[in-house]
Amino acid sequence: MLPPGASAGPGRPAPPAAPGERPRGRDMAAGTSTSTGPGTAPQSLQHGEREQEAEPEGGSRRWGAQHAGARELAELYSPGKRLQEWISVILCFSLICFNFYNLLFYLRLEHTPSIIVGIFAGVITADFLSGLFHWGADTWGSVELPIVGKAFIRPFREHHIDPTAITRHDFIETNGDNCFMTLVPLANMAYKFVSFSPEALYETCPWECYVFALIIFITMTNQIHKWSHTYFGLPRWVIFLQDWHIILPRKHHRIHHVSPHETYFCITTGWLNYPLEKIGFWRCLENIIQGLTGEKPRADDMKWAQKIK
Description:
The protein has helices at about 25-30, 45, 70-75, 80-105, 110-140, 150-160, 170-180, 185-195, 200-230, 235-245, 250-255, 275-280, 280-295, 300-305. With about 300 residues, the chain is mainly α. It starts with about 25 loop residues before the first helix and ends with a helix.
């Protein structure tokens, strides 16, 4: 892992722009900068070019664990939150084991084609949902919101000003929230296995395989995200999956971490980032919500990034 604020790419500001210009993540993603194509990091990042880190008035660091906002956000991680993550992880993996055992019991050879399609559809759905949730938490809401602010929005604000903090989180802190989100569908699946007839379970087995694949990839999304910020000590099999873009690659995810963090939100596999960017999906949603509510996208995110005390 890298020391705080010393990432080889994620979290560093974009290369210095011309006077009066501000680099935009969407420009890089859409290929109007030095991007070389879908899912490819900008050329300067590919070649390891080290950009100057901007410093706000007062001389404090703009990025990393020493940033004033990052320190304040990290201190909001509470014992109650830690307990919720522990309970979520234990329940989630217990239900995963129970459901996986029952799925294997009802699988038949004739299910193979539909299972393959279901698993692929589950991965695609997980990637889209990771983007939707990531976009929502990055773009809207506030850390001051009751319950959800400190529990769920806080990590997103911290991540943009201290991107390598996630590499210092243990398994529980990294995956607790994703495990929490899968508890209801996992419990529903377990209920079916203990209450439905064998005939009904046989008929619905391909659908349950789709749901199970979706749950597994949602559960693993933040672990995959953590790996995309980790530049030392990764297992070879993880690097292989990243290099073949089976899971989110490190270079691909750097595009999101160009301020103002407005593109490439999908963080499970990243497969949907380029097509969603080409059709302007996130920008369209932002325009609709801003028009209806008057709220400015990423206003709270920018507020935390600009803290110097």
